[in-house]
Design a protein that fits this description.
406 residues; Cytochrome Bc1 Complex, Chain A, domain 1; 19% strand; five-stranded mixed sheet; alpha+beta
C-alpha cells in the first residue's frame, strides 16, 4: 500500500492509502468537532448538524442526495461522538470520483430553517429512543458524572430541552466556526488514482475559508462519585463504571487496549469467568476509551437487583487483585492475539482502513501502517501493563446505576 498526503492552502489535509489489490474504495470527511466542543446552551448541535448535512444543498434536495448515493450502491452513513463527526462511504472504484464530489458538495449544506424545524422532531425522537435503552442511558449519565465540568462529559445527543431551545442561527454559527478546512481531514482508502482524487478535492474545497478554531484540551482523572437512580419499567440493574486511563496520543494506549481485553472481554476475561460464567451477571465488559488529551476505562454490568451487591463485590475484588498481583503471561498472550486479530481483520477492508487512517491523522498528525500498529501491540510487555495499572488504578471509578423502581 502506498500513502499519499496533500495539504490545501486553506488547511484542509487530504490523505490517501492506495491499495491496487483492493476491490473497493472508501472515502470520508473527519471533522474534529463533537459534544466536547459545545457550550451548555448548544449541547447536541454537533449531532444535529450531522443530520442536517443529509438534508441537502442549494442545488440538491434530501431526496436527490439519497438518490445520488443509492444509484451507485454506496454504503454510506455518518456518526457523531464526543470528539468527532465523520461522514463516509464505501463504494466500487468506478464510483469513487462521483461520490467524492457528492461528499464535497454536502460538506457545504443549505441548512434551511424549514429542514431544521422538521429535524428537531427527529432528534427528539432519537433522544427518547436512547432513553429507552438502559445500556446507553447509564453510560451517558455515568460519563457526565465522571467528567463533571470537563467538556468530555457533554452529552452527544443533548437533552430535549436543549434541542427545543436551539435555533437555526445558533446551528449555522457553530457550523461556520467548526466546519472549516483546517479542522477537517479528507481520507481515501482502497483502489483509486491518487492524482485524480487529489485534484477533485483541490477543485472542490480550495474555496473554503480557513478560520481560527480551538479545542479545550486538558487531562482529567475524573470524579469517584457514585449515584444510583431508580427508573420505571426496568427489570434489571444496569451499572456503569468509568476510571481514568491514557489519551489517544499516549504510546501506552496499546497497553491500555490489552488491559481492557484482559479485564472485560466478552469471553475469556476476568469479568467473564467471575461474573458471566458464574451467572452473577448477564453481561460484564470493560473497554478502553482513548480521547483527545485524556482517556478512560468504561465498564458495564447488567444483572438482577438481587445480585447487584455480589456483582460489585466481585468487581472490586478483581480490581484489587489486579492492582496487587498484576496480570499473568497467559492473559497477556490471549489479549494480544485477540487485539491483533480484530485489528488485522478490520483493516483488510478499505472501509476499515479509512477509519484508522482518518483517526490516526486527526489525533496524531501522522500516518501509521497496519504493520506499525501490529508491531506496537506485539511490543507491549507484562511489566508495561502492570505499570499502567499502578498509575491508573481501576478502583478509582465513578459509578452510575440505573435500577428497577421499587
Amino acid at each position: 500500500m502506498e500513502f499519499k498526503v496533500h495539504k490545501l492552502t486553506n488547511g484542509l489535509t487530504v490523505i490517501g492509502e492506495v491499495n491496487k489489490s483492493a476491490e473497493s474504495c472508501a472515502v470520508g470527511f473527519f471533522v474534529k468537532t463533537g459534544a466536547r466542543d459545545e457550550t451548555s446552551q448548544i449541547n447536541g448541535v454537533s449531532h444535529f448538524l450531522e443530520h442536517m448535512l443529509f438534508k441537502g444543498t442549494e442545488k440538491l434536495s434530501a431526496l436527490a442526495v439519497n438518490e445520488e448515493f443509492d444509484k451507485t450502491g454506496a454504503q454510506y452513513n455518518a456518526f457523531t461522538s464526543e470528539e468527532n463527526t465523520v461522514f463516509y462511504a464505501a463504494i466500487l472504484p468506478e464510483y469513487l470520483e462521483e461520490i467524492t464530489k457528492l461528499w464535497i458538495e454536502l460538506m457545504r449544506p443549505a441548512l434551511r430553517t424549514e429542514d431544521f424545524n422538521v429535524e428537531k422532531q427527529v432528534i427528539k425522537e432519537e433522544i427518547a429512543m436512547y432513553k429507552d435503552q438502559p445500556n446507553y442511558d447509564v453510560f451517558d449519565r455515568c460519563r457526565m458524572l465522571y467528567f463533571d465540568k470537563h467538556p468530555c462529559g457533554n452529552s452527544v445527543l443533548g437533552s430535549e430541552e436543549n434541542i427545543d431551545a436551539l435555533t437555526a442561527e445558533q446551528m449555522r454559527g457553530y457550523f461556520t466556526r467548526r466546519y472549516v478546512p483546517n479542522n477537517m481531514v479528507a481520507a481515501v482508502a482502497g483502489n483509486f488514482d491518487w492524482n485524480k482524487i487529489k485534484n477533485i478535492f483541490e477543485a472542490g474545497c480550495a474555496g473554503w475559508e480557513k478560520q481560527d478554531v480551538k479545542r479545550e484540551l486538558s487531562d482529567t482523572r475524573g470524579t469517584r462519585n457514585k449515584q444510583r437512580v431508580e427508573k420505571a419499567n426496568l427489570v434489571r440493574e444496569h451499572i456503569c463504571l468509568i476510571s481514568p486511563s491514557v489519551s489517544a496520543q499516549d504510546q501506552r494506549r496499546f497497553a491500555a487496549s490489552l488491559l481492557g481485553e484482559i479485564v472485560g472481554d466478552d469471553v475469556g476475561s476476568r469479568f467473564f469467568w467471575e461474573l458471566v460464567d458464574k451467572a452473577i451477571a448477564e453481561t460484564a465488559s470493560m473497554e478502553f476509551m482513548p480521547m483527545d488529551g485524556t482517556g478512560a476505562n468504561c465498564s458495564y454490568i447488567r444483572c438482577s437487583s438481587e445480585n447487584t451487591a455480589r456483582a460489585m463485590e466481585i468487581v472490586n475484588n478483581i480490581f484489587a487483585a489486579i492492582a496487587k498481583d498484576g496480570i499473568t503471561e497467559a492473559e497477556h498472550t490471549k489479549a494480544k492475539n485477540k487485539v491483533l486479530s480484530a485489528l488485522v481483520i478490520k483493516n483488510e477492508l478499505p472501509m476499515g482502513r479509512l477509519v484508522d487512517l482518518g483517526f490516526n491523522w486527526t489525533y496524531l498528525g501522522n500516518y501509521r501502517t497496519i504493520e506499525q500498529d501490529v508491531s506496537a501491540v506485539k511490543a507491549v510487555t507484562v511489566p508495561e501493563i502492570n505499570a499502567l495499572i499502578k498509575e491508573y488504578p481501576l478502583s478509582d471509578f465513578a459509578q452510575f446505576s440505573l435500577s428497577p423502581a421499587k
